[in-house]
Amino acid sequence: MASKLLRAVVLGPPGSGKGTVCERIARSFGLQHLSSGQFLRESLGGGGAHWLSQGGQDHFTAVSLIPSVVRGHEIEAWTHNHNSFPRTLGQAKALDGICELDLVISLNIPFETLKDRLSARWVHPASGRVYNMDFNPPHTQGVDDLTGEPLVQREDDRPEAVAARLRKYKDAAKPVIELYKSRGILHSFSGTETNKIWPYVYTLLSSRIPPVLPEEEH
């Protein structure tokens, strides 16, 4: 159990690699990634924030969006009522009523890169497993590697819907990002590849919490 409580959130548009970054943070710093798959996969899947924590089933500490006094069922109730958060300025301010964030990581990926990623993304509906036809294709085209069941492309991942999703995120996220920037807790990382962004995220967090794995193991 970590001795220092650090509340952090990872922001980014859909397709920006939030989940991958959070999983790497979790492994590197001995944390548990509380992802949309654990709570509300569908409602959290369209962008917004991911969070991380360390601790038992009842209390969460270390890198966390939620303070240690908030229990798991309260996290689920919050996400159910507020969808993926903080997506808007109102939600960011409402989050202030739960905890004061120490750190916000914002992933800035060029929209053309995001369009390509999202348009090439197919999913296995039952499990939520995601494939990308460019860099993470299934072994057999069109079917899930583990079950052999058909893959589908989400309606909002189709090329004609992607641009509208990204514009909507940009408009909603701008005041949220400005809020955290004004508080001096925003750290932005830009690039087209998660592997190139990751070393900078690792260095930032290493200054706050001791890592359990060296960076080069990723």
From TrEMBL:
One Pfam family in the UniProt entry: ADK
InterPro entries (UniProt xref): Adenylat/UMP-CMP_kin, Adenylate_kinase_lid-dom, P-loop_NTPase
Organism domain of life: Eukaryota
Keywords: Kinase, Nucleotide-binding, Transferase
Domain Adenylate kinase active site lid: 121-156
Family under the similarity heading: Belongs to the adenylate kinase family.
UniProt name for this protein: KAD4 kinase
Source organism of this protein record: Anthoscopus minutus
Gene expressing this chain: Ak4
